[in-house]
Each structure stands twice: as C-alpha cells, then as structure tokens.
Amino acid sequence: MFDTLSDRLSGIFTKLRGKGRLTDADIDATAREIRMALLEADVALPVVKSFVAALKERARGAEVSQALNPAQQIIKIVHEELIGILGGESRRLQFAKQPPTVIMLAGLQGSGKTTLAGKLARWLKAQGHQPLLVACDLQRPNAVNQLQVLGKRVDVEVFAPQPGNGVGDPVSVARESIEHAKRTMRDIVIVDTAGRLGIDTEMMAQAAAIRDAVNPDEVIFVIDAMVGQDAVATAEAFRDGVGISGVVLSKLDGDARGGAALSVRHVTGQPILFASTGEKMEDFDVFHPDRMASRILG
Ligand code: GDP
Asked: Where does the SRP54-type proteins GTP-binding domain lie (predicted)?
C-alpha cells in the first residue's frame, strides 16, 4: 500500500534538494505536485485541500533553519501534516466503568468485520480480558459459522442463535448476549453485525437497532483500505446512520493506493484505532499515525 504515493512524494522532494531558500513560486509548485500525488492516491478532495493549504501556510512561514535545508523542511512539514490527517496520537479502546464493555463492529459486507472480531478477541484475551464474541450477522449465510471457526481458533466463546430456534433476530441475539456475558463474567462483548455490499437503509436500521439494544461503549466502523473514492460515501453513511466512535482499517497489506486510509479520519471525525494487515489472526495491531506517516514517506 502507498507505493505509488511514496514514489511520487520522494520524486517531489528530490527536486527540492540542492535548492537554497524556497521562493513562493517554489512552494506553490511543490504544493501543486503534492496535491496531484494525493488526488492520484484517491485521497478525498476535502482532505487534500486542507492538507495543501496547511502545507503552503507552514512552508511560507517556516523559519530559516540552520539545521534543515529547504527539502528537509518540506519533508518535515509533510510528515507532520500526514500524522495530523491520520489523527495525531493513537487512541486506546474505551472501556466501560461497569463491565461488560460492549464493542460493536459495523461496515459493509466483505470489509473484514468477522475477521476483525476474531483478531480483536485474541488481542484482548492476550491482555487478560475475557471476551465474548457475538454473531449478529444473520444475513450472510456463512457468517455465524465463520465466527464460530474463528472463535475456536482464538479460544473464545461465540454467542450465536441456537439452531432450531428459527433464524433468529439479530437484535434479540445482541440483547441476550449481554445478559449471557454478565452471567458468565465476561468483561468484553464483541458484536459482529451484518453488512451489505452497498449502503442500504435496511442494513443501517438494523445496525442502529442493535446499537440501541446493547448500548455500546465503542462502535467501530471497519473499512477496507482497498476501496478508493467510495470510502468517503460509505464512511459518511455509517457515521450518520449508526454513529461511530472509532475506525479500523482492514486489508492494509493490499496493493492499493491508500486514499481511504488517508481520508477516513477526516471524513468521520473519529480516530483510527487498529490496523488489520492480513487474513491471519495475528495480522493486527494498534494503529500508530506516526508510523504510518513514516511508512508513506519511505
Ligand atoms: P465481513 O463480511 O465484513 O465480515 O468480512 P470478512 O471478515 O468475512 O472478510 C472478507 C474477506 O477479507 C475474507 O476473505 C477475509 O479473509 C479477508 N480479510 C479480512 N481482513 C483482511 C486483511 O486485513 N487483509 C487481507 N488480505 N484480507 C483480509
């Protein structure tokens, strides 16, 4: 991910090497090239605009530094602005004062929610928590089974509608799971929900009903980092339809331009909490804006 953007930026910085003081014209030309590089990487236009405006303002106002030459100064500003659009600091999960903490996952079908549920359960368990996984994706035929397989793999119980009890209503399953968690002393409940291939009012209404039933401490929006410009509309729909408190970027191991990853924080106004980087349960980590920014700059 980000290979093309990294190459483009490094080409832009190379042109600045060896220059003395940067004129306003140099700064404008550099800002234009960075704008193009970000747009070509599928970064959303409002994000690009605010990035470039900040870059210009800071480059013009930059003190003449003894320690940094103009190219280094621009790189420093770009690095800091990238960290800014990725959210600045890492943000930890919010835990309930009174357990269980409820974490609800929302996102389109195929975005990586069920996989993330397993990863998150494994990660929390390794920190001494006692999570419970809850299968509320009753739309996708294999989703409950998939979660049960993952639950087994990470050795975490999965609460699911019982076979024979009808298909089950995801809102009741969600509500019952909280009671079950309290009875069995689980301190974290991870609720997997249904997604559709596209934004759909029925799916949004179901997600909102599950949210109301479980009163989550976190609603995590899972977004496939491989999607391009569609990311913005999807993120806005979940922000407005369900209300989200954090984001997880999945499939960051993919070979995409990375625009979604760079836009989602700005578009949702919520922090990126974790990064998913593969299909295996251990391909998962806390999201660090500074590390991601450094990776983009190569
Ligand atoms: P859901 O429909 O949102 O529950 O999505 P799934 O968890 O079923 O994921 C959809 C597909 O993406 C599956 O084939 C997963 O193995 C795959 N997947 C999930 N997360 C990642 C990731 O971080 N990297 C890669 N390469 N594949 C992933």
From this structure: 271-284
* Ligand 1 near 111 CB (within 6 A): yes
Atom of ligand 1 nearest to the CA of 192: 4
Q: Residue whose CA is closest, atom 16 of ligand 1?
A: 279
Q: Is the ipTM of this complex over 0.90?
A: yes
Q: Is the Cβ–Cβ distance between 135 and 148 less than 8 Å?
A: yes
Above 70 in pLDDT, residue 211? yes
Ligand 1 and 279: CB distance under 6 A: yes
Q: Which atom of ligand 1 lies closest to the CA of 278?
A: 24
User: Distance between the two ends of the chain, CA-based, in angstroms?
Assistant: 12
pLDDT, tens only, 36-49: 999 999 999 999 99
Q: Per-residue pLDDT tens for 104-127? A: 999 999 999 999 999 999 999 999
State the burial class of residue 269 (Cβ atoms within 10 Å of its Cβ: 0-12, 13-18, 19+). Answer: exposed
Would you say the pTM of this structure is higher than 0.90?
yes
DSSP code per residue over 26-86: HHHHHHHHHHHHHHHTT--HHHHHHHHHHHHHHHHH----SS--HHHHHHHHHHHHHHHHT
* Banded model confidence at residue 197, pLDDT cuts 50, 70, 90: confident
